[in-house]
Amino acid sequence: MSSSTKALTREWTTWGPVVALLALVLAWGRDLPALAVVLVALCLVAAVLAAVHHAEVIAHRVGEPFGSLVLAVAVTVIEVGLIVSLMAGGGEKTATYARDTVFAAVMITCNGIVGLALLVAALRNRVAVFNAEGSGGALATVCTLATMTLVLPTFTTSQPGPEFSGAQLAFAAVASIGLYAVFVAVQTVRHRDYFLPVTPEGKECSEDDHADPPTKAATLTSLGLLLVALVAVVGNAKVISPTIEDGVESAGLPKAVVGVVIALMVLLPETLAAVRAARRNRVQTSLNLAYGSAIASIGLTIPAIALASIWLSGPLVLGLGPLHMVLLALTGVVSALTVVPGRATLLQGGVHLAIFAAFVFLSFSP
């Protein structure tokens, strides 16, 4: 990247969150015309991209796998904010937003991001190489969390419908945050080497990434701008949420499409980061981003939604239907066959992308 390009990037990622926050202040609590909604949406997208950029700056400072953890947590904070914003005051029509968004995040990360990363790496090196120990453990955590929070509510009997009772929701929240904490401890402390990228020859990659890490002052600046961007994302999402809901309803699309739109919007920058890592032969970093985001999406979102349900009106539907449970089971089986060998080819990437395409198509046409 040239010096002029770097300067331009620093410039827009500095003023982007500030402009987005200003748009939030001006638009909050007002009935906006169509043009204003478009402008707010553009500010929201700029804030999302800026947030992930500043998360990457922080990640470059702290190193891998801490970098992937920073990105995953940043994206999940955005996701939780969007879900709560849409559910606040929405009543029964927003009862499935949390389920739809979390499930969409799992399918996007475990199939879309993983498939793209494997495809890009395999095209460059014929075979994508990664750590089976770390990826396998992360995948097992994803499958366990997804089953406990999205599948079990369909079969429990304490509460009518695919919902948890209060006690069951509390247990799921505690178990989710507990599993997430254990995963983070294993990833960053006890078995950190399992999550470090390896070269196509199977050797561990060096810590440096060609460019010098940012200074402490630059890192603290990015941390502040990251917080500003996250506030702007959450607030602007609340501002345009009625337009999203009205658009989906007027088009005659299923309500689950709202969750898919949220997850696609939030995870797009992280998808680009994973693809860039795969192009640099750091497939493990791509998998850390994908599976780490899926774990954070469930492990942090479910406890946050459980806490928010205390004051949110309306039911909280978490249980998946038969179609989505089949897709989740297929994802788990195929993902296990992908990560266990520690090596993957174009075929595995294509299979994951095919499952992702089926998920998107069936979301719009169930």
Task: Summarize the structure in short.
With 366 residues, the protein is mainly alpha-helical. It has helices at 3-27, 34-62, 66-87, 97-125, 132-155, 166-190, 216-250, 256-279, 283-308, 322-339, 346-364, and strands spanning 128-129, 343-344.
Describe the 3D structure.
The protein is an all-alpha fold and 366 residues long. It has one domain (3-364): A middle domain of Talin 1 (Up-down Bundle), CATH 1.20.1420. The protein has helices at 3-27, 34-62, 66-87, 97-125, 132-155, 166-190, 216-250, 256-279, 283-308, 322-339, 346-364, and strands at residues 128-129, 343-344. It has a two-stranded antiparallel ribbon with strand order 1-2. The radius of gyration is 20 Å and the shape is globular.
| Strand order across the largest sheet | 1-2
Instruction: Please give the count of helices.
Output: 11
Helix content class: over 70%
Distance between the termini: 44 Å
Average pLDDT number: 83
Order of helices and strands: HHHHEHHHHHHEH
Beta-strand portion reads under 5%
Counted beta strands:
2
What low-confidence regions span 5 or more consecutive residues with pLDDT below 50?
Answer: none
Rounded to an integer in angstroms, the radius of gyration calculated over CA atoms is 20 Å
CATH architecture: Up-down Bundle
The dominant shape is globular
Please state the structural category.
Answer: mainly alpha
